[in-house]
Amino acid sequence: METEREENGTEMQTEVEASAYSLARCKLENLLNKSMRIRMTDGRTLVGLFLCTDRDCNVILGSAQEFLKSTDSFSQGEPRVLGLAMIPGHHVVSIEVESDSLQMTTHGL
């Protein structure tokens, strides 16, 4: 009897993990090709289209532009065009999905 309970508990836990994995995967898939703003540990900000990620939280952005951290709070500075960029996960401070990108999805554009 003990063995059956352990097996059933393990099976149930595996099903819960699988559904959580499916939900997380679905959320990530919905973010594909959305415009994202990624702040990095060195103060730079990259803006581009979310193309993919991996288990180490590395992120690949397409059509990326780099914005340097300005010392003057009034000037944002000119962006530097990078194109395809890979951001190592350990350098990511924050990730924001730009609201314009989400609105286009909800309105079916």
TrEMBL record:
Gene3D superfamilies assigned to the protein according to its UniProt record, in alphabetical order: 2.30.30.100
Pfam families attached to this UniProt entry: LSM (PF01423)
**Sm domain mapped to chain residues:** 23-101
Q: Which InterPro entries match?
A: LSM_dom_sf, LSMD1_Sm, Sm, Sm_dom_euk/arc, snRNP_SmB/NAA38-like
PROSITE patterns reported in the protein's UniProt record = SM (PS52002)
TM region(s), chain numbering: none
Cellular component aspect of the GO annotation? NatC complex
One MF term in GO for this entry? RNA binding
Question: Domain of life here?
Answer: Eukaryota
Q: Which family does it belong to?
A: Belongs to the snRNP Sm proteins family.
This chain's protein is named Sm domain-containing protein
Native organism is Cyprinus carpio
